[in-house]
Amino acid sequence: AQTVTQSQPEMSVQEAETVTLSCTYDTSESNYYLFWYKQPPSRQMILVIRQEAYKQQNATENRFSVNFQKAAKSFSLKISDSQLGDTAMYFCAFMPQDGSGSRLTFGEGTQLTVNP
Amino acid sequence: GAVVSQHPSRVICKSGTSVKIECRSLDFQATTMFWYRQFPKKSLMLMATSNEGSKATYEQGVEKDKFLINHASLTLSTLTVTSAHPEDSSFYICSARQGNNSPLHFGNGTRLTVT
Asked: Which is it for strands A46-52 and A64-69: parallel, antiparallel or unpaired?
């Protein structure tokens, strides 16, 4: 079974600054995907970024980037130039690449608040 | 992009009644849909995996007779909470994917309140 751990229940950052959210995971799988999802107050789950474990290059999406350390089983999210609209709960998630079910395992979440 | 529609967004029902929640993939065929439950300020907890044309697979601890899941077509899955009790009050979210290892797309969720 996989586990995903987010050790920061809450974080805050000033607008325009950079913040990093931590995530570690435990698995015996060799092929898998990692995700960061954002859940704003509307409760809609929004995919922020996705990383394939076999890719060494860290994924980036505009202001969002990850630091993927496979050996350390670490998958942190960096948000640059934080905006007020980034305020949300952020979930790290793991999905094995075995095609058997694509079940996502979520971390407990980090509530990020961007202050003006 | 892929859109998943979940209906209703909010529902209030009385104890003992049943309520049905629909999850539709609007512009793609979803071979698999997932149902989650989320408590306030908590993570999403997978309840069951629904495959079109077959019985749902429930996670340990989830009562299959209480949470009935039907995936009758490639674009629709339903979750029926039977004989609802106040402790069933929660936020329920569905997600859908087109094929193995395809990205998951989430519905907007349903807030169920049982009085």
From this structure: unpaired
| Residue % of chain B over a pLDDT of 70 | 98
Residues A75 and A92: beta-carbon distance below 8 Å: yes
State the Cα–Cα distance between residues B65 and B71, nearest whole angstrom: 15
Instruction: Name every chain A residue with its beta carbon within 8 A of the beta carbon of B38.
Output: 43
CA separation for the pair B46, A3 (Å, rounded)? 13
CB pairs < 8 Å spanning A and B: 53
Do the bridges between strand B110-114 and strand B10-13 make them parallel or antiparallel, or are there none, so unpaired?
parallel
In this structure, which amino acid lies at residue A67? N
Q: Give which of A49, A72, A53, A69 is closest to A61, Cα–Cα.
A: A49
Q: Tokens 């202050």 identify what position?
A: A115
Contacts of B23 in chain A (CB under 8 A): none
pLDDT tens-digit series, residues B62-100: 999 999 999 888 899 999 999 999 999 999 999 998 877
Transcribe A42-60 into DSSP letters: T---EEEEEEETT--SPPE
